[in-house]
Amino acid sequence: MTRTNTSDSLWILPADALPAFLSALAENGELWVPVPVGEGARFLPYREGLPIDLTQTPPAHPAKSILFPHSEVLFTYHRGDDGIPALTVPEFDSRFLVAFGVRSCDLHAINALDAIFLKRSVPDTGYQQRRERLRVIGIACLSPAATCFCDRMGGGPFDTTGMDVQIVPFEESYLFRILTEGGNQLLNPYLDYFQAADEGAIRKIAALEEGTSLQTGQPVDFEDLSQAIKTHNDDPYWEDLANACLGCGICTFVCPVCSCFTLVDEGTPRAGRRVRAWDACMFSTFTKEASGHNPRGAEVARVKQRFFHKFYYCIENEEPPGCVGCGRCVAQCPTSIDIREVIRHYQREGT
Amino acid sequence: MTDKVSLARTLQEVFQREGLDGVIGYAAGTTPLRPRPTVVTKPEAFDSLVFDGFCVQNLANYLHRHRGKRMGILVKGCDRRAVRVLVQEKQIAREDLYLIGIPCPGMLNRSQLLEEYPGLQGDQVAEEGDTLYLELSGNRVTLSRVDYLLPTCRACRHRVPDDVDLLLDPLPFTSPEADGSLADEVKSIAEMEGEERAGLFREELSRCILCYACRNVCPFCYCETCFTDSLQPAWMTPAPEPDNIFFYHVNRMMHMAGRCVTCGSCEWACPEHIQLRLLYGKLVADVEELFAYEPGLDETTPQPLSHFSEHDPDEHIG
Ligand code: SF4
Ligand code: SF4
Predict the structure, then answer these.
(1) What ipTM did this prediction achieve?
(2) Least CB-CB distance to B39: which of A243, A275, A341?
(3) Residue A276 phi/psi, 5° resolution?
(4) Where are the domains of chain A?
(5) pLDDT tens across A249-272, in order?
(6) Which of B206, B210, B252 maximizes ligand 2 atoms within 8 Å of its Cβ, making it the mutation to test the pocket?
């Protein structure tokens, strides 16, 4: 039975039934959930008994790692006694891949990652197979962080872009709002864990949505911003930022959109593997050439690259902007480099 | 007493009188309890400078970028010692620098405060004497500064920078003398069973994302090509797997023997709050015990690990 009309698409899961529901879900596919690690949550494959953090807004580490892991083995090789090398490519799971508890910002970011990994000339195999299996049970943000500014970047605390199901935590339970046919198919086998939402619950949730406002400013006009940045290549402002920037990888690693990687070979002539791992344009070695020449050898060139890419090249290439307003880089930069400030700096008055 | 206004005036005066190319200091950041290091190069820009209990980051790290220029730099005790190590290592010339010393009141633990008072903003914090006042929506909380000191600062025995070109007056806030808390912490870990100790570091380092903030913030990590980035030979790869992570941290630590001034910047910069002070605290304690040497206290005593003497007793060899 398919349920698609509005009243049928709202279901309540008591909080104490969440682990049982997730365990059941995980039996039929790959399930990723935000797990508290140290002081910040990160997305990890679900295991029974694993603690889940649905409060950190947003989780310290982005959901991009589900589709684009920090490191990934592309193939292993092995030379047998006969001297003939054999290559093994990892097998891909064919079952669905559920990302649970993902927020609006990270889903706008996946939209941007699609442009990079799928829509350019050759789709990326690993990304593509994971992306095709992806179902998203997103979560509404009832208490956005002080660094959140998704409302200016196309998203919002209750925005449902990219979600198959949206959950809204309320009282001792979660409201599940089924948004797509994929979401419907995903939840249908498990409806025994749920109760149908009654009018009262629906009203309370509407009030929650009403009460959660994030108003950090007007939506950014990316055309304007890209023009302003493009014409300020020599602005001393970049030097100010470069004077503080450490050139570490924090901002790019916690960014849900940053997607630069490097390829490394490990092993001996007999056996080994090729690994793809995240890289960062903020590292001084990122653009270092074999000759020793480095076109972005100066800190200021790297600082500029980060913002030029996000707000100028992306727009110029008709791809989504490289920033979704999750504020993670703002919260984590040791030297308080703030992308919101960069936007403010180059924005036209009144926009 | 040094406040924001007299800090700006004094540094501006020094900048003009000494004909400096720039002064390295801290400006206000946009995120709570995080100043932004800055280089002031115009007389009218000195008003942007700040100094408070959150100016943890060792500024000596920035000197590498200004080699050959005549720079003023604000130094706490640990920044001063780091400058001395860099002079000793011939990375910078003392005569190029104008050192403006600030008697350090001990720096505060931002993450501890934010954990206890989520959403705390910089303008809600006031420091006075050895007290910390938080103005929380109509309610004033009084804390003792010493309870919020960074562990490395709490144990610091060299807060007042020596042999500087100008020593500023003490700040209007302060903290008690050093205590043995870091030494005790290090000792209790050294006394653990091997497996227990390994487990502790496995657990801590399992969070490492190899972002290299700890390396890049350190005044002494200035190698043009770090071993982490060497491709031939490739000592390690950028995949954040236990082998790579251990290799990175153990090797960086080895390179710090006789150099680390326990400024705590690496732990402070780490986005994963990995307790790097435990590694470096032990290293520093070992160097002190084995060689009776503390880095950055004088220019003439050679660093024990980068110096060879025919009369070395070589006790560690068989
Ligand atoms: S290793 Fe850490 S504590 Fe030691 S000098 Fe470097 S940044 Fe400071
Ligand atoms: S700063 Fe922290 S996470 Fe980054 S490399 Fe150092 S220990 Fe690892």
Answers:
(1) 0.95
(2) A243
(3) -105, 130
(4) 10-210, 222-349
(5) 999 999 999 999 999 999 988 999
(6) B210
